[in-house]
Structures are given as structure tokens and as C-alpha cells.
Specification:
With 195 residues, the chain is of the alpha+beta class. 55% of the residues lie in helices and 12% in strands. The protein contains 9 helices and 4 strands, in the order E-H-E-H-E-E-H-H-H-H-H-H-H. Helix 1 crosses helix 6, helix 1 packs across helix 9 and helix 4 runs parallel beside helix 6. The radius of gyration is 17 Å and the shape is globular. Bound molecules: glutathione.
């Protein structure tokens, strides 16, 4: 009932794959190779990926924009808070993580620029987790922002432990997400890609 189309990378698609995995919900993981992209591009809402096709009641809806897809699935799977305030906060953290992705992944930053941006963000999320006290960013249960934060730590590659050792709450949340049975299984079986 769900077809996620993206390139054969983690990029902006993997946190959506993590949401499906956390919910133990099957989806079609449609990975486009670059040679086929030019044919497909014009048929997507904003000429970009990821997109999510939702097949329901003999209707097909196509969503674009990774965070819009994440919010939709989070509503469906119970990862989007309990009330408007929680949803607004989850959205705020999710947007910040999206900005963090945009300003770091694939950008040719110096080590110092990279380090400054990461520490600012991790310190913020560490303080937030300490203040909230439940182990999650918002309220008392896991949200798509928690899943997004955990997935994003993968882009740190070999620096991941170095950063997370400084931010124990973020580290604990990351371990919690990766230990969810569906996520664990996904990580064991997913295609290996460089980024
Ligand atoms: N804000 C969009 C950005 C989407 C985006 O930049 N997609 C890139 C891949 S990560 C893309 O489709 N690039 C191919 C192209 O623009 O032709 C989102 O979060 O989904």
C-alpha cells in the first residue's frame, strides 16, 4: 500500500525507511538508478525525490517533500505526539534536523565549520532530552523527530562515536531507536550504500 521512491542511497530517504521499520510496516522500497531519473523526474510533484505513493480506496496519492511524508506516516503509525503542542514541537525539531541535513550532508565544509554546526545542534538536542526527562524529545513516547535524529547520526560515519560520547542522552536515544525490533532488522538487511 506504500511505495517509497528514492535513489539508492540513505540521503533524505533513510529516515522515512526507519519510520516504516520502527512501525514494522512493509513498504515498497523503490530505488531509482541515476540513468532512469531523467525519465521519471517530470512526473514527480517537484521534480525531486523522495516521493511516497499511497494506494488507498482505489485512489493513488503522491506525496513529495521528505518531512511531509514523515509527518503523514507518523500520524498513521503513532509517532506524532498526543496533542497540538506536542505535534508542533515534534515538527520544530524535525524541521531543525532537516536544516541540519541541508547545511552539512554533501556540503564541502571545513572540519571546524562541521564541528561547530554539529556541536550546536547536538548540544541543543542533549539539553532538550535532559529537560524532557523521558528519553524522547517530546512527551513520553517516540516520535518521528526522535527517529530522524537517530538516523541522522549515520552521516557522522567514523566520527559518530566521538560526537555521541559527548552527548549521552542523544546516544541513548539513538541506541533505543536502533534496538527497536523492526529497525534492527532493517539495518541488518538494508542495502549497503556509501551515504
Ligand atoms: N526538500 C526536499 C528536497 C528533496 C531533494 O533535494 N531531493 C534530491 C535528492 S536528496 C533530488 O531529488 N535530486 C535530484 C534532482 O533534483 O534532480 C525534501 O526534503 O524532500
Amino acid at each position: 500500500d506504500y511505495k517509497l521512491t528514492y535513489f539508492d542511497i540513505r540521503g533524505r530517504g533513510e529516515f522515512i525507511r526507519f519510520i516504516f521499520a520502527a512501525a514494522n510496516h512493509k513498504f515498497e522500497d523503490n530505488r531509482i538508478n541515476p540513468a532512469d531519473w531523467s525519465n521519471l523526474k517530470a512526473s514527480t510533484p517537484f521534480q525531486q525525490l523522495p516521493t511516497l505513493e499511497i494506494h488507498e480506496d482505489s485512489e493513488t496519492v503522491i506525496l513529495a517533500q521528505s518531512k511531509a511524508i514523515a509527518r503523514f506516516l507518523a500520524d498513521r503509525f503513532g509517532f506524532n505526539g498526543e496533542n497540538e503542542i506536542e505535534r508542533a514541537l515534534i515538527d520544530m525539531y524535525g524541521c531543525q534536523l532537516g536544516d541540519l541535513f541541508d547545511s552539512t550532508v554533501g556540503k564541502n565544509l571545513t572540519n571546524q565549520q562541521f564541528d561547530t554546526i554539529l556541536n550546536q545542534n547536538f548540544k541543543f538536542f542533549e539539553d532538550r532530552l535532559n529537560k524532557n526527562g523521558s528519553g524522547f524529545l517530546v512527551g513520553g513516547k517516540i516520535s518521528w523527530a526522535d527517529i530522524f535524529l537517530s538516523q541522522m547520526t549515520e552521516f557522522l560515519d567514523k566520527y559518530k562515536n566521538m560526537y555521541l560520547d559527548k552527548y549521552p542522552q542523544v546516544k541513548a536515544l539513538d541506541e533505543y531507536v536502533r534496538d527497536l525490533p523492526g529497525v534492527k532488522e532493517w539495518i541488518q538487511n538494508r542495502p549497503t550504500t556509501p551515504f
